[in-house]
Please model this.
Amino acid sequence: MDLPLDNKNQLESLLDGYSLKELKSIASNIIEQYKYNSYKGDDLINSLLVSKVYAVYRLPATYSAFTDALKHTLELYKDNIDSIIDVGAGSGSASIAVSHLLPNIKSYTLLERNKYMIEVGKSLHNFNYINYDLSLDNLDIKADLVLSNYVLNELDHNSRINAINKMWNMTNKLILIVEPGTPEGFNLIREIRDYLISIGGHIISPCPHNGICLNTWCHFSNRVSRSKLHKDIKGGDAPYEDEKYSYIAISKGEVTPCKTRILRHPQINPGYINLEVCTKEGIKHIKYSKKDKELFKKARKSNAGDMI
Ligand SMILES: C[S@@+](CC[C@H](N)C(=O)[O-])C[C@H]1O[C@@H](n2cnc3c(N)ncnc32)[C@H](O)[C@@H]1O
Model:
């Protein structure tokens, strides 16, 4: 789902008055930095302008990935959610997504160590920030939903396990973790999944079971439209980008997970549809023929990531 136009206009106005040449050069520098320096724990955003450019070219994509993951989680998780903690909140894309899908949340706490990210976030929304380093600081706070969106891949291995324990201790009910949909991002999600199950967590989404995951690369994709400014600063003229993400939603209480989750975009052929799905018994290939009427109709309208 795209970031609503009002939010997008507010976001892009952050770059009013700067030269396009400067913005382009900053964007290409951040893209390089993220390519080579993730997974090391470095702080990559080192000025307010860098933080603004980063928000303009990344926030619409991280917003849409988180929206998708949360939507799929809420299809299965029906308990009330009153409060959230957004860990490594950056300029707040995931919290903005939560506010759109769960408008009755009473309390938002955004934890972030980078002062430039916080400054940009404060110009986009009114949520409460706490200056917090996930690797160094401890905080005695709790919320129903504790989330992180594209954060844990920025930590080194030891800090990551520590961070997951902190998130688990902070939650009253569930945690939702979204990472890039790369093979590395998925491996990270699988490690987190195994660890949280081993300490008593219950899968909400996307998996249909709490057993061993035999998937080699479980990821989903979301199409995000690109504005003129986005094309100007990031380059290329495709009207959209496909944002790949992997995620895991885990609850402290028992939840009934889905029976069948679609893993790849349905292959639609004349008279039949092929689906690759994950089930309790493992990965399967299902064929629905036109004769299966209702199921065929449902499969034709579905996307990777949906339950069926
Ligand atoms: C890729 S950005 C994602 C930001 C935001 N969650 C989003 O979805 O747009 C990663 C964020 O994690 C923050 N971060 C990285 N390591 C952190 C740490 N040790 N403690 C707190 N925040 C951290 C960074 O400062 C940055 O804001």
Remarks:
- Residues 59, 62, 88-90, 93-94, 112-114, 117, 132-135, 149-151, 154-155 surround S-adenosylmethionine (CB under 6 Å).
- The CA atoms of residues 90 and 114 lie 8 Å apart.
- The chain has nine helices and twelve strands.
- The two ends are 20 Å apart (CA to CA).
